[in-house]
Every structure is written in C-alpha cells, then in structure tokens.
C-alpha cells in the first residue's frame, strides 16, 4: 500500500475528517462509526459525486489546500477515510 502515517496525530486527523464529513453531509452516523478503510463512494458510506464535491470543499477550507476535480488521483484520494487523510497529511507537510 502507500506510506500511511501511523501515529496518534494521524488517528486524530482521521477523527477530525470523519467529523467534517458527517457534519458537512448531515449523515445519519457518528464520526467514530466511519471505518477508516470502508469506501466513501458507493458502497460503504454510500456517497455520490455531489457528496464528494462537498467533502472536497470542506477539506479545502479546513486544511488550506485545494482538492481539484481534475486530479487524476481522485479515485484513490477519495477511496476511503484513510486514503483521504493520507492525502491531507501529505499536503500539510509541503
């Protein structure tokens, strides 16, 4: 897989991002119920492309970098909570 950071701060990031997703989309789950490796799109949380745009907007505002719709890696970036947080962590270190 990729170089996924394993630390308390990464766990904190996953909790924060799960909370942002649940709040932004008004989901009927608690942030701690969002499993790190479950798909965000389709199965898993059952989100659609409009939901992904909303998540991208919230993440961009919160973390200060833009998630672009034309990024060729979006399918991987948004594949799971863990993948999204790994991408966020990599952008924060730049």
UniProtKB/TrEMBL annotation:
Against InterPro entries, the record matches this protein to:
ACP-like_sf, PP-bd_ACP
Organism expressing this protein natively? Hydrogenophaga taeniospiralis CCUG 15921
What protein is this chain from? Acyl carrier protein
Q: Which SUPFAM superfamilies match?
A: ACP-like
The chain positions of domain Carrier read 11-92
Q: Organism's domain of life?
A: Bacteria
């Amino acid at each position: 897989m990729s170089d996924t950071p394993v630390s308390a701060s990464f766990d904190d990031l996953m909790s924060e991002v799960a909370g942002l997703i649940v709040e932004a989309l008004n989901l009927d789950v608690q942030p701690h119920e969002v499993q790190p490796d479950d798909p965000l799109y389709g199965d898993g949380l059952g989100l659609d492309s409009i939901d992904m745009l909303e998540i991208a907007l919230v993440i961009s505002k919160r973390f200060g970098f833009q998630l672009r719709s034309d990024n060729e890696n979006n399918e991987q970036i948004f594949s799971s909570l863990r993948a999204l947080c790994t991408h966020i962590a990599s952008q924060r270190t730049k």
